[in-house]
Design goal:
The protein is mainly alpha-helical and 696 residues long. Helices cover 61% and strands 5% of the residues.
């Protein structure tokens, strides 16, 4: 016989192999997400004491200017930059030629040749003066980067002349200039009036000054070559900072320069191999932490391929997305809706796992970002607050409130960190508040992602459960028309089971939805069930006990088929499948025994096929369903008879093994008995007996 540990085909062994593979694939994904270069070993913040030993320069390195400094110096240099414009003589020649032809073609009758010549010369003079000054290209004027230039250099016949931009014309100002001159001519030369009034000056105006990209770029490049990217040089062995010293702005710049130099210089291959080994060890340690947490706190999650895959895949996607943003610099890391991960896991798994995964993911991403300590210090509490504030998402507006809480939490924590670092409101980087606002708005995509993940992984959210319980749902409307008695029974059981699950812990929405749909199979043959029968009509009278039992039992299979056809979630189908477990149709079984004798009756023909309930919700529902149905047949309904009925149902379910796989404790059973007793008394309005007055 093959030893148990070598039985590779056993479900337990296969599941362990699956766990190893999914953790291994997650590790590979994290490996490629983490920075490929060596990481600076020191953690520091501006305005805080240096907590490490005194630091000396390990080698010569330049003090790199910050992006803000480089940008300011670049702007200062470019403020003196004079772009080049090309003066196009061909444009003015073409327009002046077209103008001359127009004058010759449209001369006014009665105008002498001398007057015509004078008009032609005057128009040439007006347009020639404008074109000589120059009309700027409209594309140049619309360019924000060129709009602020005060002076330009105009190139004409390889000769450059620097002029003020304000002295040049745009098409609009050129038109105004020509139009004004023509108005003056009408007043001083009445014989030209008719021609001028029909004349359109804009027809012969075109830009003749165009941006010279080649000359301008060469000049700009030479200008920026003088820009130094460094402040100076730190010599090898020079002390940078001592332990306990405050990290000033200058020291912070030096440390950042050392970090950048260190991370860009991987060194020898042997050292880089050690970096690879370090990444592997770090990833293994973090994934082992996740595994140990789930194994000791949420072992049930490890038993589910779907749940563990969901947690690891969503975590990897968030880390991969953050890595992409960090490497490409597409936008600020704080714009990423980091809390979405925690909110989604909270929705489909639970609060504790969501907070833990948020913490681990923050630590991993914190290893990538420039100021990891600040990032981790912000993301862990904000993610935890988001998860706690959402609690159970049963209304859409809850997500909007959570997004607002996320924004406020980001702002408060960031402000606290900034004041500790800078001790100055003026030094706070207020632009990050904008990123936090974008982050909070993007958090609203959680609603869309929930729907996608529900369909992808087979989850069911509270919002979906609420929608399933609406009375206008197709199956519930059909049930109310074809089997109204069954719907009434389902509503009664739903109320009873929902209160019970809320009392002992579980998902009340899930058990309510399951209760409403558990008997939809009765719609196939509604009159064969007593709650739908009219007094005096019983279809079972013409059937044998075996046939009647088969009809009753078939409502489970019919219900599952109908639920799958209507694409109900598997979690709801579990209630249909398990609500009778493997119990018997007691009424028809007892009739058959009384008629034929117990030895001649096949008990399997009268038993439901199962399976048995395996969750708190399905187990509680089975008990509530049986108790509610049995209570209807009680001839006398008082506190004592109801108590006896509840105890009897619990005893039968336990002795027949129906609760064998149900995660219920003895305390849960005691609480459930008391609750069912109390609620049934309320349902049937059992009143206190009023004694008669004997002495009058």
């Amino acid at each position: 016989m093959r030893p148990k540990w070598r039985n590779w085909n056993s479900p337990v062994k296969k599941h362990r192999i699956y766990l190893i593979l999914v953790f291994l694939l997650t590790g590979v994904a994290l490996y490629f997400s983490l920075p490929q270069e060596a990481r600076f070993r020191y953690e520091y913040q501006k305005g805080r004491p240096w907590m490490h030993a005194s630091l000396f320069a390990p080698y010569n390195f330049a003090i790199v200017k910050s992006e803000q400094e480089l940008s300011a110096e670049k702007d200062s240099l470019l403020s003196d930059f004079v772009p080049y414009l090309i003066h196009s003589d061909s444009v003015s020649k073409h327009e002046m030629l077209m103008l001359a032809k127009n004058v010759e073609k449209n001369v006014v009758k009665g105008m002498s040749p001398l007057q015509q010549l004078s008009l032609k010369l005057k128009l040439n003079e007006l347009y020639g003066a404008v074109y000589e000054t120059g009309i700027l290209d409209q594309n140049y004027l619309n360019d924000p980067g060129k709009r602020n230039n005060k002076r330009v250099k105009i190139v004409f016949n390889n000769t450059g002349k620097e002029v003020a931009v304000s002295s040049l014309y745009s098409l609009k100002s050129a038109y105004n200039e020509i139009h004004g001159q023509l108005d003056d001519l009408k007043a001083s030369h009445p014989e030209w009036r008719n021609f001028i009034e029909d004349f359109h000056p804009e027809t012969y105006l075109s830009s003749n000054l165009f941006y010279d990209q080649e000359r301008s770029s060469q000049t700009e490049k030479k200008l920026l070559e003088s820009l130094s990217v460094n402040h100076g040089l730190i010599q090898e062995g020079e002390r940078i900072i001592s332990q306990g010293d405050i990290v000033s702005t200058r020291i912070f710049t030096i440390l950042e320069s050392l970090r950048l130099t260190y991370e860009k210089n991987r060194g020898e291959d042997s050292k880089y191999n050690l970096v690879i080994l370090g990444r592997i060890i770090l990833i293994m340690a973090l994934l082992l932490t996740v595994y140990l947490f789930l194994r000791n706190i949420r072992r049930k999650l490890l038993r589910s391929k779907r749940d563990i895959s969901f947690v690891l895949i969503t975590m990897s996607l968030m880390i991969g997305g953050c890595a992409f943003v960090i490497r490409t610099g597409a936008f600020d890391i704080y714009m990423i809706p980091f809390t979405v991960l925690a909110l989604i896991i909270r929705t489909f798994v639970d609060t504790r796992v969501a907070i833990f995964v948020n913490t681990i993911t923050s630590l991993i991403v914190g290893f990538m970002v420039p100021n990891g300590y600040e990032f981790v210090l912000i993301q862990i509490p904000v993610g935890s607050v988001a998860v706690i504030s959402l609690n159970k998402m049963q209304k859409r507006e809850q997500l909007i409130v959570t997004a607002l809480i996320v924004f406020i939490s980001y702002c408060v924590i960031y402000l606290g960190i900034s004041l500790v670092q800078e001790a100055n409101f003026g030094a706070v980087d207020w632009i990050k508040i904008r990123w936090f606002a974008v982050n909070a708005i993007l958090t609203l995509i959680t609603y869309l992602l929930m729907y996608i993940l529900e369909k992808s992984f087979g989850f069911v959210s509270d919002l979906t459960l609420i929608e399933l319980t609406f009375s206008n749902q197709k199956l519930l409307k059909k049930l109310s028309l074809e089997a109204p008695g069954t719907l009434h029974h389902s509503l009664q059981v739903a109320n009873l089971a929902e209160m019970a699950v809320a009392k002992i812990g579980g998902n009340p929405l899930l058990v309510r939805a399951g209760a409403l749909y558990h008997d939809i199979g009765k719609m196939v043959n509604p009159l064969y069930f007593i709650e739908n029968q009219t007094p005096g009509i019983n279809p079972h009278e013409g059937l044998t006990e075996e046939e009647s039992a088969a009809t009753i039992i078939s409502h489970v299979e019919d219900g599952v088929a109908l639920a799958r056809k209507e694409k109900l979630p598997e979690q709801i189908i579990d209630f249909i499948n398990t609500h009778h477990g493997t119990t018997r149709t007691g009424y028809f079984y007892q009739k058959a025994v009384n008629r034929l004798g117990i030895d001649r009756v096949d008990g399997a023909l009268f038993s439901y096929p199962g399976p048995l309930p395996t969750t708190r919700e399905t187990a509680v529902f089975m008990l509530a369903d049986s108790i509610e149905a049995a209570s209807r047949s009680l001839p006398v309904k008082n506190s004592e008879t109801i108590r006896n009925l509840v105890d009897q149902i619990f005893k039968q379910k336990m002795e027949s093994g129906q609760l064998e796989f149900a995660p219920l404790t003895f305390k849960d059973i005691r609480v459930l008995k008391d609750l069912f007793h109390e609620k049934l008394i309320n349902i049937y309005h059992v009143r206190v007996y009023y004694p008669e007055i004997k002495n009058r």
